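Progress narrative, work stream C.
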Amino acid sequence: MKFRREDKGQAPGFQVAPMIDVMFLLLCFFMASQIFSQWETEVDVQLPTATTGLPQDRMLGEVIVNVLHDGRYVVNRRELDDRELGRLFGRIVDLSPGQPVLIRADRGTAYEHIIRVLDLCRRADIYNISFATSFVKEPPSR
């Protein structure tokens, strides 16, 4: 009696577990890289420099208002006027009070444009405001 079958060289089946691992790692990579794409560093804003202070970690849900040198506002790649920015701030406060706002102003921006953004923040009861600067690696010599 012959109880053993002869192996006819069947091809191994498709391995699902390694494919799931690879897809999970790709998903994690793209989710992490999406955070960096939302930092709006592509907007052409030349930040003023500071020799003091430490780089801060970004806060969750932080709203970045880019103030260009001619006084235009850009939020999430959309150009807004004063009225639209005020409405945006109002909606932000309605959804989550205490929402942080980061103001990225160009170094050539007139002071009055920054004050307009601060005034709109105050009208909407936003008090968690910070300003973006770039850091100088070496302090200037005197």
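Work stream C, second folded protein:
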Amino acid sequence: MTKVLANIKGDKMIWAVAALLALFSFLPVYSASSNLAYLYGDGNTFVFLVKHFAHLVLGFLIMYGVHKIPHHYFKGLSIIMIPVIIILLLITMAQNNTIGGANASRWIRVPFVGVTFQPSTLAAVVLMTYVARYLSKIKDKVVSFNETLLPLWLPVFLVLMLILPANLSTAAIMFSMVMVLVFLGGYPIKYIAVILGSGLLILTFFILFAKAFPGVFPNRVDTWVSRVESFVDNKDTPEDYQIERAKIAIARGGAIGTGPGKSVQRNFLPQSSSDFIYAIIIEEWGFVGGVFLMLLYILLLLRLVIVAHKSEDVFGKLLVIGVGLPIVFQALINMAVAVELFPVTGQTLPLISSGGTSIWMTCLAIGIVLSVSSKRDIYVAEQQEKEKKENPLEVLSEVL
């Protein structure tokens, strides 16, 4: 263990935030999984705690392994992984899984292992890395819009269109993050406006086509419409029931909460250990616990900005923003849904909610960020060593 800790590089604050989030997650996951234990098990919540522990252990192993890879390697890996991601998404769609006629094809089962995996979460990390690579390539170059269509926007829209029928919220977040990244990467504003308009037109056409011909292919358009209508008009829908239970949980929490493991709404709130775990956290830990958790994500955001600013190359800067910002953005969306500031999206709380794929891909993204910050640490160490050798006083002190 000591040897492993000695080999940990990169931004120590990011390591600390990730560790704090992971450690904090055990109590709410253990508490909130009680309804799952009775619905799908024998009432034993310890099984879910062990599973969550195993997911986190594997996630941190991924984080540790990835952070040891020089970050410039991810340029080539993103090119290789784009076609792999497209194939995985096609396989996922080909399963044609439906729930109530809606497209539920989000997971694929890994052969021989029996573990389910959600390709869209891996696609988000790969796509942001790919976009960062391309933007760093054209930095300070004058490019026409047509020149960027095939190498940049074709993979982006292809991946998003394969995710869209089953998972609008993930596709929307990915598209928003790509827009933020290309803006920060210096892509011309007028081209961004064209892409933004094209994306909205494609989404509108998709919704209209799905409503006009509902039997052509399974989709979740009716679910999206129901969630938006519930948010705007307070209609009586399953999503409205979830929000009402979440608000009851938050109201019960008060300032300091009811105490760990003393949540009542965990027994009534669907997805209490994943999508709505923030409401359970506030019920048990109160306003203080909710703010503390939010501050951890804000601290992570600040460290991302610092790491990006200190990075020595453009790709490193864009890579940190590209894979790191969606973690904080997803966390804020999850919190906003719990307090009814945003329609129900189905997004989990990074490193807190139960669920293997979400934890693993969050750790993968953090590992990439740490890889960038590790290079900065190595660079600083090399510069200090160089200055030390060039300083006669330092040389003399070493001799003596």
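The CA atoms of residues 249 and 264 lie 8 Å apart. No further action is required on this item.
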